[in-house]
Design brief:
heterodimer; A: 315 residues; mainly alpha; B: globular
Chain lengths: 315, 281
């Protein structure tokens, strides 16, 4: 297990380092002067020169890269030009919305998908199975942002139960804040739940064919108890792996869904930073999200390897 | 004729339904090349936000443009971006996967690490990064989606190719003195083509979804060229006055993605019956 852990952490560090290189290289490839891109062509030459110095553009790229990565390792992500604030503080503020949103979406997704997948596996080939798998196909086909718009149409425009967007802030209380996050979380959770339900069903069907499950059934254990005690724990390993992989889709989905609901989260910050040519924010947030995706996948691998020895042996 | 009907009946339901839906969307895209009820970019402010009716079957948008015409042209744009992204991904990823399978441990390791890196950047994130650097547009969307697809194609091609390399006829070809390149092209590539095609249809569907999301954000296909995602973005502004505007483009995306996914599932079942599932599923 230790060798697997070391190997996985080394891979994580290598991928995270490569991710910083890619982001830096892409933004280095901007045609023209990045300071001019950020300030616009009508900017005063003095302001452009000052920004060039602030961004370190007068230094060679290896020095700038080392300074940028070194800063990030110490929690210094630079200063946003638009907000005149350290990017780290901005990101922390926005994470206070994006993290609960992603967490809520994950909980909803797993809470819907795992029971549905088990239900379908227990009724393979029957109407219930067909209904769950049809839900799976539709959930994957419906774009999350369209589903978000449909939710607004139904629950905000028609019924008036929720506001069509915005966030009251955590200072308004947990109730109103969570209420503002509920529809976006449902919109984010649907495509994930659809995929996860299919995976759960497949994993549960595989487990149902195992001899120990047949023995449990032969012993006369009720079907629900077999599913809960014997099938679910074993089917959860592939489900956990997919949940980890889905985190990257959740990140991408959050960028879009936060914009549908005008939620001031990390995704919206990134989107607005593009419009404002705030490259320092774009650079830092993209790296942060990419490294988070890599770290979550590594964590899932490690947890799964701790539960199930087979990946350790394969690795 | 009877034999043909029998053969079609034996095909998986998902293949038939997916093929039908995909043909419908491709047909709409091709039709838009020669005919649309109105020019898709024609602005008529006097006819803005009209509900569906005999003249404008799906109504008009806030500029008075005919929604049906925009959806037909949008199909063309969406499919073009999806096809280009899949082609780019396959062109980069399949040779990479094949090379990794032939090169042994180091090739494997390199493809695995490249895959890890590209998976760290979901397609939407890559597109945002490229947009920040190069500006918004369909070409950058194709590039972003193509790079993501390349990682998937490389992994799939490598996995499938490794299985082929272990087969007897490949060992026999190597024993007869054929080089790795020749074996790869003559024996391995044709044997993994099915897997690659199935993966291609799935990635096509994902590309259509991502293109729509990026166009919704204003980072994809640029106006005045119609795109389903941008139409949804515009429709959201008029949800209170013209809610139907938010239905049709979304339904078009869902039908396209559903068709491609079912087609992918059906092709997989048809090419490898071991995977065959119950009917549509």
């Amino acid at each position: 297990m230790l060798a697997f852990l070391v190997r996985r952490l080394l891979t994580l560090a290598l991928t995270a380092w490569l991710a910083t290189l890619v982001v830096f290289a892409v933004l280095e490839a901007i045609p023209g002067d990045p300071a001019l891109v950020m300030l616009g062509t009508s900017a005063q030459p003095e302001a452009v020169a000052a920004l060039r110095a602030q961004m370190g553009l007068d230094r060679p790229w290896p020095v700038r890269y080392a300074g940028w990565v070194g800063g990030m390792l110490h929690g210094d992500f630079g200063t946003s030009l638009t907000y005149a604030r350290p990017v780290a503080g901005l990101v922390a503020d926005r994470l206070a919305i994006t993290l609960p949103l992603a967490g809520l979406a994950l909980v909803l997704s797993a809470g819907i998908a795992i029971p549905l997948g088990l239900f379908a596996a227990g009724r393979q080939g029957r109407a219930g199975d067909w209904a769950v798998m049809a839900f799976g196909q539709m959930g994957i086909a419906v774009p999350g942002f369209w589903f978000a718009i449909l939710l607004i149409l139904l629950f905000s425009v028609r019924l008036g139960w929720f506001s069509a967007g915005g966030f009251p802030g955590w200072e308004a209380g947990a109730g109103p804040a969570l209420k503002a996050l509920l529809l976006p979380a449902v919109a984010l959770a649907l495509p994930e739940a659809a995929i996860l339900a299919r995976i759960t069903r497949t994993a549960a069907l595989d487990t149902l064919r195992e001899e120990y499950v047949r023995t449990a059934v032969a012993k006369g254990l009720p079907r629900r108890a077999v599913l809960r005690r014997h099938v679910l724990p074993n089917a959860l390993i592939p489900v956990a792996t997919i949940l980890g992989l889905q985190f990257s889709f959740l990140v991408a989905g959050a960028v879009v869904v936060e914009n549908v609901f005008t939620l001031p989260g990390l995704g919206r910050l990134l989107y607005q930073a593009i419009g404002q040519h705030d490259l320092i924010v774009v650079q830092s947030v993209v790296v942060l999200l990419a490294v988070t995706v890599v770290a979550v996948n590594a964590l899932v691998d490690i947890v799964c390897a701790a539960i199930d020895p087979r990946p350790r042996v394969t690795a | 004729m009877r034999r043909l009907v029998q053969r079609v009946r034996r095909l998986p339901v998902s293949l038939l339904l997916g093929g039908l839906l995909t043909a419908l969307v491709v047909g709409a895209a091709l039709l838009s090349l020669v005919w649309t009820p109105f020019p898709a970019e024609q602005v008529r402010v006097v006819a803005r936000l009209r509900p569906p009716g005999p003249v404008h079957w799906l109504g008009t948008d806030h500029f008075g443009r005919d929604v049906l015409s925009m959806i037909l042209v949008g199909a063309r744009n969406s499919l073009a971006v999806g096809a280009a992204a899949v082609a780019l991904g396959a062109l980069l990823g399949v040779p990479l996967g094949l090379a990794a399978s032939a090169w042994g441990r180091w090739g494997d390791e390199a493809v695995a690490r490249l895959g890890d890196l590209l998976f760290a950047f979901p397609a939407v994130l890559t597109a945002i990064l490229l947009t920040a650097a190069l500006g918004a547009g369909a070409v950058n969307v194709v590039l972003a989606l193509g790079l993501f697809n390349a990682a998937v194609f490389a992994r799939v091609a490598r996995g499938a190719a490794l299985a082929v390399w272990r087969r007897d006829f490949v060992r026999a070809a190597l024993a007869l003195g054929r080089g790795p390149l020749s074996v790869t092209l003559v024996h391995v590539l044709p044997n993994i083509a099915g897997v690659v095609i199935v993966q291609g249809t799935v990635l096509f569907a994902v590309a259509v979804l991502n293109e729509a999301a990026l166009s919704y954000l204003g980072l994809g296909i640029q106006p005045p060229s119609p795109s389903w995602g941008k139409m949804l973005g515009d429709a959201q502004t008029f949800l209170f006055t013209a809610p139907l505007q938010a239905i049709f483009p979304g339904a078009a995306i869902a039908v396209t993605v559903l068709g491609l996914n079912l087609l992918g599932d059906g092709l997989r079942d048809a090419l490898d019956p071991r995977h065959r599932s119950a009917g549509l599923l």
